[in-house]
Design brief:
It is a single chain. With 187 residues, the protein is mainly beta. Among the domains are: 34 residues, no CATH class; 60 residues, no CATH class. Helices cover 7% and strands 17% of the residues. It has two helices and ten strands; from the N terminus they run αββαββββββββ. Strands 7, 8, 9 and 10 form a four-stranded antiparallel beta sheet that branches. The longest helix is centred in the middle third of the chain and has 10 residues. The chain is elongated, with a radius of gyration of 20 Å.
């Protein structure tokens, strides 16, 4: 008599059953796993979770060595930032350390409008169309805290150089560079 062992999803707190020969469930199948042994966190940048260095900058409070989480400080120090109601008209959310809540902060407004397809197409400067394209599930721009979900194919400019390595857990490593602009690290 043989008994089957049920394998559950690798990620912390997930009680779903892993699919196929994978260690991940249906909900997490496209998520990267932290490269540190015995860590069950989701990878965000270069194969690492936040705890193991995905956000390399440290809290701006003197003497604190914790990773930045919000407004340049760690969660412990973010809790002591002054809070007030968001200045955005009609918003009932609380803003901590700024005039607006995270939803209405200027840094997030472009990402939010892109997701809703409200960008004025005429105001965008098109890049030269290339014969190559790349499709990413996630891209992380170095120096930013936001991860942008990209569900469409992206046309690259003719002068782009894309050096991407797709690892087993769908993590992209490499850079995109173009003349006159610079290089963006992609993880």
């Amino acid at each position: 008599m043989t008994t089957m062992t049920t394998i559950y999803c690798h990620f912390n707190g997930c009680k779903n059953i892993a699919i196929g020969d994978s260690r991940k469930c249906e909900a997490h199948k496209r998520k990267g796993m932290c490269a540190v042994d015995s860590c069950h966190n989701q990878a965000y940048r270069c194969g690492l979770c936040v705890r193991h260095g995905a956000r390399s900058s440290q809290c701006s409070v003197d003497g604190c060595t914790k990773n930045v989480r919000v407004n340049g400080v760690c969660y412990q120090h973010a809790a002591i930032l002054p809070s007030s109601q968001c200045a955005h008209e009609g918003c009932k959310s609380m803003a901590r350390g700024s005039a607006t809540c995270k939803r209405h902060s200027p840094r997030d407004s472009h990402v939010k409008s892109a997701a809703k397809n409200t960008i004025d197409e005429a105001s965008l400067t098109p890049l030269p169309i290339a014969n190559e394209f790349a499709a990413w599930d996630q891209i992380k721009l170095e120096g930013l805290d936001d991860v942008f979900e990209v569900m469409a194919e992206i046309d690259l400019a003719e002068q782009f150089e894309l050096n991407a390595v797709c690892e087993m857990d769908l993590l992209w490593l490499g850079s995109i560079s173009w003349e006159g602009i610079g290089t963006i690290q992609v993880c």
